[in-house]
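Apologies for my clumsy wording, but could you write out the amino acids of a protein and the tokens describing how it folds?
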Amino acid sequence: MADLICATDDSGAAEIFASLQGEGPSAGVPVAFIRLSRCNLACTWCDTAYTWRFEGDNRPHRDGVAYDRKANQIALSPEKAAAKIAALGQKRLVITGGEPLMQCGPLADMLAILPDIEVEIETNGTTKASSHVDIRVDQYNVSPKLAHSGNDAALALIPERLDFYACDPRAFFKFVVASPQDVDEVLALQREYRFRPGHVFLMAEGTDSATLRARQQWLSPLCLEHGFRMSDRMHIHLYGDTRGT
């Protein structure tokens, strides 16, 4: 049985914790989180670059920080991960990253030990769950990366995958936006893939309250105009840009 490769918290332990979901359709819900390491994309504004931008990885990031892999990754058996999650006493689990669907094998093993917990997966939408994982998922939070992320569209916006998620009633789309021009890109994607009404969220990019509030001033009327839902980043206001929150 393969281990899960997890991100670490500030103590060096696996980043498994209880908190309120801060984003998307489940915002405000008490949940357990597990953050997995590694990602197949590289967003220049990524606020969890410690999950992928290790020393020797030259993919661009605005902070330019290269993290020590040994200090920021830890292997954990599915049994130990499940035990830590169960001990948090929450009814819902959010699996995040990095890109968690890069680790479907050990994820399936972990979820088999947690049969009574609701499961929410945060994904960039470039891959899909294995059947053994998918059968346990109650909600997908799909966050396709727009041009301002710095990722090549051929890697970040895969038509087959977007079609797949657009047809799944469990999938909600959450787009990170930094300027009004990003909303034009979302509108073009909506026209092409016909995302379900009420399943599209726009979320301002930012890792501090002041930036989020400033961008929400122009984002909120655009959501009203185009019928999108707006997502805050509640955990940023509560805890700041910190691990384990």
